[in-house]
Design a protein that fits this description.
This protein has 1 helix and 11 strands, in the order ββαβββββββββ. The chain is mostly beta strands and about 140 residues long. It has a single domain, classed as Jelly Rolls, CATH 2.60.120.10. The chain has a 4-stranded antiparallel beta sheet, with no helix packed on it. The chain has a 3-stranded antiparallel beta sheet with strand order 7-6-9, with no helix packed on it. The longest helix has 4 residues, at about 30.
């Protein structure tokens, strides 16, 4: 009898609507998850996904490696710096984007209260004009 327990091996990736490549994890598409998903997000230095909201979906992200700023809120006016081993909770419907301002890759483990992190995703590139103010020349060395 199939109890539907599934192993997810590394190596499969997909390009998300956020404009970055994710490591495929547990989701509706990969294992038939119904209420939660988890994916890996490696982010090279200087990279940030398209600003977005997850409509009615909560996010918890754990920073496995590196250090990364997360810009969030109206016009992305709030900044939270997350360091290796820390987690950040992003409530549903809050605009956000992580931004790797360090000189090293960072790696996130992202969990969403939906069965796919692309569900109810609304890109918001129009609010990225704030990010132009981020001095990319000040990437930590």
């Amino acid at each position: 009898m199939d109890d539907k327990v599934r192993l997810i091996k590394p190596g499969k990736t997909y390009f998300g609507a956020q404009g970055v490549v994710y490591g495929s994890g547990a989701s509706r598409k990969t294992v038939g998850a119904g209420k939660v998903c988890m994916n890996i997000l490696p982010m090279p230095s200087g990279v940030h996904p398209v600003s977005h909201v997850h409509k009615d979906v909560e996010t918890i992200a754990y920073l496995l490696e590196g250090e990364c700023a997360v810009f969030h809120g109206e016009s992305l006016k709030n900044e939270t710096v997350v360091k290796k081993g820390e987690q950040i909770f992003i409530p549903e419907n809050v605009p956000h984007t992580p931004f790797n301002l360090s000189d090293k890759e960072c790696v996130w483990i992202a969990v969403h209260s939906s069965d796919d992190n692309q569900d109810e995703l609304i890109p918001m590139p129009e609010i990225e004009r704030f990010l132009i103010k981020v001095n990319r020349n000040n990437i930590k060395k």
